[in-house]
């Protein structure tokens, strides 16, 4: 193929390094951003924690306002004059689609051996989580049994699932052990299993729900309805699962009051005993903004303790003027100073955007804060983007993994966005408000005759909200509300 030169016109999105950094910080959660700040503090000597701000508990907004001057606090006018002399050649912005290394040597390079791995909370980040097997083995080591029984117990514990039940039957466990242990009888395996079932949490190592509940019920042997409860679990558990109380009453010969006491006793037992030992890591939430009502007005404030206050290190910034510093050191200090200023400016921009978007959300959802979920108004990203003068993608970033502390609880900012359903009067009702109405109707429904999805749709239609039955079912399932046949209660 013959080579040739061609001239083409095209468009592409270009961003400065500052904008790229600002966008990246904007989409980080508070916990991730806190770690990002600590990593930057470790890699850039020109940035340090502002201990004075920590002592005086000033708000993040006041901290950020100090960073907008793009100047370093000094103890004398002479230091300020010297700084202006050696910083005047630092450009205000880098060229578009360039990187830090194109203009400066990287000041963020840290060796692998000295890299910062966390925010100081070493124990919580690195502590091993305990599984149900670990918990059972710990108890087994404190139990005085023979070596043969210990080997059987280990085989059983290995088959325990996270919910506490065995993944295979005792017969299969016996068959796998019979190869290694001579003259092993199935009764030996069952005996060890029964002993493990009394470990904490009681009911683990069971084959099925019936077996686990009967073991847990042993703690209530002095209860006056123990025998009736044992009989129900042993023979009529499927009827209880289907909430067929009429059949249960006939089969067990119990009246409604006594049957209700039996059901209440069963509900005190744990159908998933292994869930008590939760090996999953806990997710912590730090609110980014707080909403309070003062003098009849709802006000939005940034969380004072969400992020550590930072400032420019005066000692290192002044080192560029000393004779002992080489040209290479001066270049490094200039690079680090500019990166520190840009980082602080990006943090300021993030907080300003977050505060602006949160204030807009609160102003549009005043009825929610005054009256509750049923008064939530429909709102989409475009509505907020148009009001604050930003792109929808920016609103999406600033509302993801950002949380608001309100008198009604802590909510993710995305919680306040919902689609709308047209009402009979020509207005609009948000899907969040509809879910709240469904939840209220279910909580007030008759105990013996719960409302079906179709009946809920009819009641909402009578209130002027036209929703299909399948839509009601979708909202109900999203709120983890069981269907009507599973919500039936005796009283």
TrEMBL record:
The keyword Transferase applies. Residues 331-489 form the RNA polymerase sigma factor 54 DNA-binding domain. Residues 122-316 form the RNA polymerase sigma factor 54 core-binding domain. GO terms for molecular function: DNA binding; DNA-binding transcription activator activity; nucleotidyltransferase activity; sigma factor activity. Pfam families: Sigma54_AID, Sigma54_CBD, Sigma54_DBD. GO terms for cellular component: DNA-directed RNA polymerase complex. Residues 59-77 have a biased composition (Polar residues). One of its GO terms (biological process) is DNA-templated transcription initiation. It comes from the Bacteria. InterPro entries: RNA_pol_sigma_54 (IPR000394), RNA_pol_sigma_54_core-bd (IPR007046), RNA_pol_sigma_54_DNA-bd (IPR007634), RpoN_core-bd_sf (IPR038709). Belongs to the sigma-54 factor family. Sigma factors are initiation factors that promote the attachment of RNA polymerase to specific initiation sites and are then released. This is RNA polymerase sigma-54 factor. It comes from Marinomonas ushuaiensis DSM 15871. The lineage of its organism: Bacteria, Pseudomonadati, Pseudomonadota, Gammaproteobacteria, Oceanospirillales.
